[in-house]
Design goal:
single chain, mainly alpha, globular
Length: 261
């Protein structure tokens, strides 16, 4: 049955503009090594990642504040707290074993039901809570939070009228793509720190094509064939097996919470 539930976190025009700007700036913070050339790249290889580590949390906080200003009621906050806690508890069950990570499939399903704004916030809070739970707090955390937020945001932007088996197939396919996207983003975060240590690492000032080729080979060998594929398979199996039941539960919760357009 098609429902007409509104998003749990409303996105106004101004909020949408802030969100788009934040996504563009966030992606730029990931991909800066590919687009800075010559002396600028050589001069900022050491300090740029640390500058972004300091500014990215501020960017995320600005987006979260803007999203909350659009009207997040107590029911949405309660759902956010519950789902963040569940996601944080799921992460230690598989992390560290062949890329098996259970945190993302629930994020995809919740973003699908509660909308892109909720998915963005849940992505950030889930990774933050799980980092506190597992002792994973470090300079990588803001980048993990942003990458996860983009996964939740994308799930909320998928075509809304698809239902039934086609919806599960769509979400499963998205879960696979999201797994590889997350791994690609985190590889890009790591890559500049390894400048000059091997033949595949970042070369400050090298042409875009050269560094892009180095990065793609680097991420395929160190992440895509291992961790990312394990994460993709986990998302695929979890969404196919548990997706219908969890979607039903989440949509029932959304109806009771009365999130209306």
């Amino acid at each position: 049955m098609t429902d007409f539930l509104g998003p749990a976190v409303r996105i106004r025009v101004r909020t949408g503009v802030v969100l788009v700007v934040a996504v563009v700036l966030g992606l730029a913070m990931f991909c800066w090594p590919l687009f800075v050339s010559g002396a600028a790249a050589s001069g900022h290889t050491a300090d740029a990642p640390f500058i972004f580590m300091a500014t990215l949390p501020v960017l995320i906080l600005i987006v979260l504040a803007e999203l909350s200003s659009g009207g997040v009621d107590a029911k949405a906050l309660a759902l956010l707290g519950v789902l963040s806690a569940v996601d944080a508890a799921l992460r230690p069950l598989g992390a560290g074993t062949g890329g098996v990570e259970l945190v993302f499939f629930l994020l995809v399903l919740a973003g699908r039901v509660f909308g892109p704004g909720f998915g963005f916030v849940l992505g950030a809070t889930s990774l933050f809570a799980s980092a506190l739970l597992t002792g994973g707090v470090g300079p990588w955390l803001p980048f993990q939070m942003l990458a996860s937020s983009l996964v939740g945001l994308g799930a909320g932007l998928l075509p809304g009228r698809v239902r039934g088996r086609w919806e599960i197939a769509l979400l499963a396919a998205y879960g696979v793509v999201a797994a590889y996207f997350y791994g690609l983003a985190m590889s890009m975060f790591t890559w500049p720190f390894l400048a000059g240590t091997s033949a595949l690492d970042f070369v400050p000032g090298a042409p875009l094509g050269t560094n892009l080729h180095r990065f793609l080979v680097f991420t395929v060998l160190t992440s895509t064939l291992g961790w990312d594929t394990g994460r993709a398979i986990t998302n695929l199996i979890a969404i196919l097996a548990l997706g219908p039941a969890i979607l039903t539960i989440l949509r029932r919760a959304a109806r009771r919470a009365s999130f209306r357009p």
